Structures
1.
Amino acid sequence: MKLLQNVMKQVMIRDPNQPEFHQAVKEVLESLEPVAERNPQWVQAGIFERLVEPDRQIIFSVPWVDDNGMVQVNRGFRVQFNSVIGPYKGGIRFHPSVYLGTIKFLGFEQILKNSLTGLPIGGGKGGSDFDPKGKSDGEIMRFCQNFMRELYRHIGENTDIPAGDIGVGAREIGYLYGMYKKIKNDFTGVLTGKGLTWGGSLVRNEATGYGLCYFMEEAMKSIKGKSFEGTTVVISGSGNVATHAAEKAQQLGGKVVTLSDSSGYIYDDEGIKLDTVKQIKQVDRKRISEYVKYHPNAKYVEGASDIWSVKCDIALPCATQNELDGQAAKELIANGCFAVGEGANMPTTPEAVEVFLGNGVVLAPAKAANAGGVATSGLEMSQNSMRYSWTFEEVDAKLKDIMVSIYRNTSNAAKEYGHENNLVVGANIAGFLKVGNAMYEQGV
Ligand code: NDP
Ligand code: 2IT
């Protein structure tokens, strides 16, 4: 790094204790070095310094009453990162590991991801260190209501539109939306991922996983002349993204042999039965280990990280950040894996990225490959504005078009900057160009 190395230094001095944020920024700045060289006016205008500093970081207290009548206090976050191409947009994560650095890394990635969708949406992210695991519906509802009791003053359909992420699905969006509406007396599309009877879009639930597979299908066809048909697929996670990635991979002719949670993974040589998974995870809200009770021929392996030792052609990490490291990458390659699609945000460590790229593996980075979720959120916002709903087929076709066009823009940017088939560099550059230009045109 030359032109941008001081930008990185400043980030590390300002917030030394946010390693995930450093990781996300470093990768992007390294990719953008040639863009800075070609655009000295952007360097002069401080575009890169401004890109890495959120517009606004809101931290708030969320007191709530548990089922024993005890008051618990969690911490809530909303980072409004960049709104040059549209209102802040991005999910909310509830997980005990959440701190400001998590939300900043996710919000930063979201700027470029949302730009890649081609839709007018800026970047933001929110969350809390609240742990939804083991909580009753009543506790979840009271937590969501109290979270919204503060968040409502910072969001709006033209200002900032949150959605789900880890630990925030349809149930939580319902409670959050209900509270927003009570406070504001305003029925607007202020959240996405809403229920289908109250403003939600068809396909939003499936969109991230489906979009990931549409992207992979295009990337594998263009780079390797291959597809899902006849392949063995390893998928981590068993939440929204993993389940729908598995569903689409199966529809496209792949055999999905694993799913996981943070405790361990299941392996089913005959192919994972998704009806069982949906019953366990979505209806019963239990652990993935339950699967072997229904299918005794499958096996459960304790420990989530060993999943990458399972032989496969295609790997789709769909759980969480840094879940796939350099050693796992080497194991995957040794077992014949030729394509990796990031369903989760930043699931691959920098070492693993290097291993994949150095060995000619098709590596589809999260900000391009998992953009189908937020893209369909954008389509939900359009439908809310129009007071109209498209059919499943209409939204699905738009999602597919968007994913193919993200692949083309990413691939073209990589080629134009001398990194053919490096989709990591391509996504960073293609996502940034529109944002950088808008920042420049709008002034300081
Ligand atoms: P869910 O809450 O539905 O599922 C999360 C899954 O990941 C669970 O199986 C969970 O297991 C596992 N997981 C979570 N944290 C960890 C951890 N620290 N170690 C191992 N496993 C873990 O979330 P989503 O499916 O929505 O999100 C998964 C990933 O996809 C995240 O990175 C998210 O940011 C990203 N994403 C989500 C989008 C969406 O539309 N929902 C859009 C784009 C990206 P356990 O139950 O044991 O915690
Ligand atoms: O990481 C992501 O892109 C999401 N969690 C979805 C965000 C959204 O606003 O739909």
2.
Amino acid sequence: MSLQRCQTEWGEIDQEYQQLQETHKVYRQKLDELTNLQATCSSAISKQRKGLKDLRHSLRKLYLNLVLGNVNVTLLSNQAKFAYKDEYEKFKLCMTIILMFAAITCLFLFNYRVTDEIFNFLLVWYYCTLTIRESILMSNGSRIKGWWVSHHYVSTFLSGVMLTWPEGSMYQMFRSQFLAFSIYQSFVQFLQYYYQSGCLYRLRALGERNQLDLTVEGFQSWMWRGLTFLLPFLFFGHFWQLYNALTLFRLAGHKDCKEWQVFMLALTFLVLFLGNFLTTLKVVRQKVQENPEKVQKQE
Ligand code: COA
């Protein structure tokens, strides 16, 4: 290769290198722009998240203000929080007993539309009240899972639809099954009360250490015994909800079925089954993960 050719090639390579440097400069500039844009986007997303969280908080307060008026729902001391929770559990127990008697009366004594309506109205009122009390509990730091609160909104809706379902052959075909389910649900709620109020008292004792000589281990062992006893009843109730959904879907396909309530109730029972079943599984999984050695000991 002649010297002149080498010089020409060197010139070309040098020129390409200059171009490459320019391109690299542009690349660095764009990379800086991209990094800046990424940082701006990340901070905008965090700002949006915070905004949404604040909005959710305000909406919850707005809902409480709407229902309760302008009252202060912040419970300051731990004692006040325990007392409110205790009262909430007792309210549930008291209503459970009333609802169980009401359902037994409707199922075995009076087959009248008016008594059924009173029962369903009582259910609507009860679930509405629960959602309000649970919102207050949540604004005071309770760890209630979102689904249990939503579950009470869905149950309010379900009881409302039951209330509007007109008398007829379709209604009568589902009536006994619904009332029997309500009795069973009250029975499970009764067991739940003993478990939840037991947890509450033991947690309080753990916090104060003056009522019982209780250790964290002791609490965990009591909780697992209670939960193992309760879970089969809960799961049976969930599958009964699924059975209600299937019965209603079948009724909705019946040639004489004209009421929209049948299909709507079927969907609502299905939602309740899925939500309750999956959330209960999640709760149990979380507890097992938090404390696997204890479960093995229990087994
Ligand atoms: N309704 C209202 N509050 C509930 C609740 C429920 N179903 N489940 C749990 N909580 C509350 C607890 O009291 C606790 O409150 P706190 O933070 O104020 O002390 C908080 O949520 C956290 O409880 P967690 O530890 O997650 O559960 P747990 O051990 O108290 O209860 C179960 C676990 C599974 C027994 C309970 O969630 C339950 O009963 N679920 C099934 C409900 C159901 O399916 N009902 C329909 C039956 S047909």
